[in-house]
Amino acid sequence: MKPIGVVGIGNVLMGDDALGPYVVKLLEAAWEPQDGLQLTDAGTPGLDLTAYLAELDRVVAVDVVHAEGRPGEVRLFDGAELARRPPLRAVSPHEPGLREAILNAAFLGVAPRSIRLVGVVPGSVEYRLGLSAPVRAALPAVVERVRALLVEAGVAPVPRVRPLAPDVWWERGVAP
Questions:
Q1: d(CA 18, CA 44)
Q2: Terminal C-alpha separation, the chain
Q3: Cis peptide bond upstream of 96, omega within 30
Q4: Per residue in 64-86, is it b (16+ CB within 10 Å) or e — as a string?
């Protein structure tokens, strides 16, 4: 059986765009590894995101979203809703992005049963290390939303008895 996955999407060198990888590092530090749950820092994939999706039964993606709202506001999107949106002109390393990977996976017959996107309205997406204060303040809500979606999908994350320090190496300014 394919695992349920959390896929963090984003560029750790671009301020709030590091949200997805940051959340994956938080989850790795807080939860015990377990069969049936896969945590993936996907970085800034293009259509290669399709390969990540093909390996999973259900997906909870985490990324910043360009949406109306105040920085740090948490939004939830369904994969089917994302797939229905009109295509955008490619203007970033995220394009082709999640929408195109969902459509590609469906076309190839390898799409997960469900895809949910936990998105956060960014405060700043520019070349710099570290999350802005509003996005950093949203982290507990994002982690809780991810946990709730995993439970809904049939996987209950197990907290570590002794949580680890998250390996957010880019905020130290040093490669792993």
A1: 10
A2: 32
A3: yes
A4: bbeeeeebbbbeebebeebbeee
- What the block records as the tokens of 22 is 């940051």
Alpha helices in 31-132 (DSSP H): 49-54, 79-84, 98-108
CATH C-level class of 4-172: alpha beta
In the block, tokens 């002109």 appear at 89
Rounded to an integer, what distance in angstroms lies between the CA atom of residue 98 and that of residue 77?
12
- CA–CA distance, 169 with 165 (Å, rounded to integer): 11
Q: What is the mean pLDDT of residues 53-74?
A: 94
Residue bearing tokens 């750790």:
12
CA angle 96, 135, 91 (to 5 degrees): 20
Task: Identify the weakest region by mean pLDDT among 5-14, 131-140, 164-173.
Answer: 164-173
Tens digits of per-residue pLDDT, 35-56?
Answer: 999 999 999 888 889 999 999 9
